[in-house]
Amino acid sequence: MSGDILDNKGSGDAGWQWPAIHPEGRKYGLVVAAFSLVAALLAWETIAWPLGFLTLGVLAFFRDPERIVPQDENAIVSPADGHVSLISQVAPPLELSMSDAAGNPGLGEGPVTRISIFMSVFDVHINRTPIGGIVTRLIYVPGKFLNADLDKASEENERQHILVSRPDGLQVGFTQIAGLVARRIVPFVKQGDLVAVGQRVGLIRFGSRVDVYLPAGTEPGVILGQKIVAGETVLARVGEGKLIEGFAQ
Question: What pLDDT digit, counting tens, does each position of 104-123 carry?
């Protein structure tokens, strides 16, 4: 199904398929599987069975399913699977707000809406770009490994800032944040790369969070606590905003 065009008129061919395992996870799966096999050959069943289940867990963590990405120039799609843990008005981090050494503008210092998406170990951890354009900024910042659900994790945890700019001047910044268990952020792109909306840009290993900074004048199209899907859920539409309410039930 990868690369196929599907629409709301029934065009295209869609069907269920086993999700691929990202290459980053295959080596870990093979290592754990090897230990499980050795334990089984030595008749250490109390070790072999847990290692076997751990192998399946590692492979599931690194699953990389295809996503149907909306082709709408006003849509800002979710960069991560998970649930919306925070929605707040904040100033963007300095790495995204300031102009760079070449004079290219950042997001500015004024407050914008930040949507924080928490990913548990059960979510897909491949991250995608919210809009298409050029990666004009990619900045890694070492830090702590606090619980990613905490608000201060945005400023204190290990993180990687990414700024994507469209030819029409629209910019969306987002930050991959390592969490209590996550210990490595793996980029798939570099500064200067051209990316399509919903394209894979990196992953965070073993539980984490992604913050998205919406353009000024754009309000969230999702609700606090909502479950969202990377590359498919529309977080917001440029220049649009209205109150959206929901009931937990």
Answer: 888 988 899 999 999 988 89
